[in-house]
Specification:
The chain has 9 helices and no strands. By secondary structure, it is mainly α. The chain folds into 2 domains: about 1-50, Orthogonal Bundle (Arc Repressor Mutant, subunit A); about 50-195, Orthogonal Bundle (Tetracycline Repressor, domain 2). Pfam families: TetR_C_6, TetR_N.
Length: about 200
């Protein structure tokens, strides 16, 4: 393995450990020692790639958004576009252990994004990308008669993304009321009301 590949592997290993620790302990209680222990490396090894906790945490949130973007890009646009939009939104929902962990990590970061300009910019870019993709899909759906002509794709994209974010938030904080199995059902109900065809 090349030195570059080894460095990339180490960063990924450390980032995966970070996501798990923050999901389990919360952002404030997470230390570099916790991350190093979870990753099975020394604290010095963590600091070789990330100078401090803030740098590690910023990389972590960028990593979460990058994974989400990769999931979105893996979905091929196809008609009916209702199914495509549903598939896009399911990439955001915590439907497996990996996305559950990423959700908990993201929620820990929301308050940081309120005051940290770099984290806020990362969040805004990711959100803008998702909104743009959903807006374009809804515009195409309207053009193909899957949505009513009076539907505003921009407004509906914002509403749909906010709805899915709300599902994620309530699932994380009230899992008994919003269990994993109900998330897709709620999304399907929403899409049934938005689209003219099923």
């Amino acid at each position: 393995m090349t030195r570059h590949a080894d460095a990339a592997t180490r960063r990924s290993q450390i980032t995966d450990a970070l996501l798990g620790v923050v999901a389990d302990l919360g952002l404030q209680r997470t230390t570099l020692t916790d991350v190093a222990t979870r990753a099975g490396v020394s604290v010095g090894m963590v600091q070789r790639y990330f100078r401090n906790k803030d740098e590690l945490l910023r990389f972590g949130i960028a990593h979460v958004f990058e994974r989400a973007e990769q999931r979105v890009l893996a979905i091929e646009p196809a008609r009916p576009l209702r199914n495509y939009v549903g598939a896009l939104m399911r990439t955001v929902l915590p439907l497996d252990a990996e996305r559950e962990r990423e959700l908990r990590f993201w929620l820990n970061f929301l308050h940081v994004a309120l005051t940290d300009t770099e984290t806020s910019a990362t969040h805004e870019r990711a959100t803008a990308g998702l909104l743009d993709g959903v807006t374009r899909a809804l515009s195409a759906a309207r053009q193909h008669g899957e949505l009513a002509r009076e539907t505003d794709p921009v407004a509906e994209a914002s509403a749909l993304v906010a709805f899915v974010d709300g599902l994620c938030l309530h699932h994380a904080l009230a899992p008994a009321a919003f269990p994993t199995r109900s998330l897709e059902e709620a999304l399907e109900t929403y899409l049934d009301r938005l689209f003219l065809i099923r």
